[in-house]
């Protein structure tokens, strides 16, 4: 039985995905190194560092280690300095992720790209970073570019939704559309600014414990061939439908505020409850009126690509949707091995979901599902949700979610023992060796998270 999206099939295909993480993987001790280097002990700092040990994240991907010049100045970095590093270290990641997505999409000639939709919340400039990515890739000057800002962690799916509407516009005009969608976030560079706020205001600011760096990309296509002799390659995923919703009066709960020293993360204890409360009604709206294959009767019958904003967001989703960690296996895997890379994370999760080792840890061993629900939350609070059809005959290409090769190893770069509590937490996290399919590890790692 075919999958129908009302009022008809949309003809939207994700032809390729790409993920590029930077070369360093910092563990929980890196934050402790910088904290002790620049700030005295205090109750707020102790609380944040305790949370940092038990986020369930083993490694966070970063453009640098704790000895990077940007985070070792007398004062936290300025916006100008953050922009400099975003461009020098971030843009090459976006170029690499884009090339990977283009290669899988069989885009051998970049002149075939008609549009580019990009997003970031960790830089702001005119022209935007997308201009320089397009220039590096050699895209045509006539490519229609859109850069989304202010959408935070939901930016990846917001960019995909925007690209989908552009695709449909071209379809109505009888024109082919091949849209490069790019998300780039360099989050770890605001660590000194966040630590300063924790120290000066005695605030419990947990964003500094969660965020990481990443670039990701997808190529979205409509169903009009570029020419009679160039058939559309088989999709990785078909995009069937989507929903967008803003939860009223929640803008104070989740955000990324402008500050002379970059940005400040806004993340209140209400976020896990708010995100959980909107999941089921958004899902119900997404599937309402659709003729789905037999056996897709409830959330547990789908696979889920959930943006891993934090451990309590994932566990909260489990409770309200009646699903298990294995339903969100790629989300947990990404969270544990890389952390939360804001808008770039959701494409990384979708990329990881299609790998063979992820197919081996499905709920009850039932195998991967054809239908996948993607979801992400951003400032507002907004929820982006989409329904995807996975091409189970097309396996993943480069394993884009492998842990970066360089890790911390010395006291200077965050690898030393820094106290009995940290050592005990490290022993707990190491004991079961972090495969997302190992239920005991997931339960142990995530039950200890206390963000409230």
UniProtKB/TrEMBL annotation:
Region (Disordered): 394-437
All residue ranges annotated as the Chalcone/stilbene synthase C-terminal domain in the record: 247-389
InterPro entries: Chalcone/stilbene_synt_C (IPR012328), Chalcone/stilbene_synt_N (IPR001099), Polyketide_synthase_type-III (IPR011141), Thiolase-like (IPR016039)
Claim: Acyltransferase is one of the keywords in the record: yes
Domain Chalcone/stilbene synthase N-terminal residues, every copy: 71-223
Keyword field: Acyltransferase, Transferase
GO annotation, biological process: polyketide biosynthetic process
Family annotation (CDD domains): CHS_like
Annotated Basic and acidic residues bias: 428-437
One Gene Ontology term of the molecular function aspect: acyltransferase activity, transferring groups other than amino-acyl groups
Pfam families: Chal_sti_synt_C, Chal_sti_synt_N
Source organism superkingdom: Eukaryota
Family: Belongs to the thiolase-like superfamily. Chalcone/stilbene synthases family.
Name the UniProt record assigns to this protein: Chalcone synthase
